[in-house]
């Protein structure tokens, strides 16, 4: 297949926009950062609460769908069977949708929340810390993914549409009968999904590679700096291309399953050396409060409002991050969920990864709380998001081996996030094919690498910022258009699905 600009307009327009922005990242790095900083303040002030309400809406919608009669309908024909085992399915969706983030924040976030309780629900600071961590990593994050997966899966496997974000807006064809306006609308939606995906992905890659470099610096007592981070990124990019080149079954599934096994091994390693009863008690207590407080937490109501500064630094950023990942993670989940009922997809995506993440943060967080008590005087050992988990493991036996394994797992998680995104972006730009050409996979591997390097440079533009701060500001901006579009998508999906069920019943 030749990459003809006339036949691949979506690909070339998207690459042109990304290369144009990359030019500013490389040449006008500080000016670009300053522009992002000022615009992000405006977005947070005007649309911060909108992010919160959208998250709550997605969770409530999924609960209703799962437990209604609609939940029994399959993503596909009634005779379609799931392509992957449940373990492989969960492994792939978890590796694509969360991955390295649970290593990045495993210790730092619970400790920060414990020392700076964002809310006051009349419980101890440890419980509040875990409850708020659950909130930021739990049902809402996976609801963004699941809503997109259900909508796209419905149009893809039930209505036989192409693997494109615009397929979820096919009702527009009835509202806008003229071909050219249709093409303009659908093309704009697909370009927006591609750009949102790329920004969300490179944010994760930038954070993950910086953590790997931080871990290597901590372990080897040698500062590898910016050059070291870029070398790590290049290694991850090469591995991701090799994985996506082999496809879903031979590449992505194998690495994703490996990730889950190693993650469970690390979790068990920490758990057996912890106060197991304390961990399970804290897990149950924090989970109870999270469920009871979920709605007021979701809208920052009354005593559950941590304040605009905290919401800006944490919750708005997280919601923007999950929204940025929704296009590629949602479509990837839809792609691997054919033959499963909507109820199974919703409960599988919403509950299983969330509960697993909750127990992970409880085990590491509660263990870190105990270690801090043993310090006698806390000197900020776990404050650095990029090195906290490596310092944490210094309090356990086999620290050299465990920290090395953690770095390998970080690399592996980033590879599965990157290869999943490359695969989905290739489907987008290869005319919505479920098995995109290898030329598209190679192109997206290259462009994502270039753009990720630009983001790392942006994160080093000023002495007082890092990749995390730069990404917080950028993602709040880039996620806004897609979040507005998601509201329209939800309305159209409910309308189309309800109309189809009425047609079938009559």
TrEMBL record:
Subcellular location: Cell membrane
Membrane topology: Multi-pass membrane protein
Entry similarity comment: Belongs to the BCCT transporter (TC 2.A.15) family.
Transmembrane segment boundaries: 9-30, 50-67, 87-107, 134-157, 184-206, 226-248, 260-280, 316-334, 346-372, 405-429, 441-461, 473-495
Protein name, entry field: BCCT family transporter
Protein's organism: Aquimarina mytili
A single GO cellular-component term on record: plasma membrane
Top-rank taxon, per record: Bacteria
Cited InterPro entries: BCCT_transptr
Chief localisation class: membrane
Entry keyword set: Cell membrane, Membrane, Transmembrane, Transmembrane helix, Transport
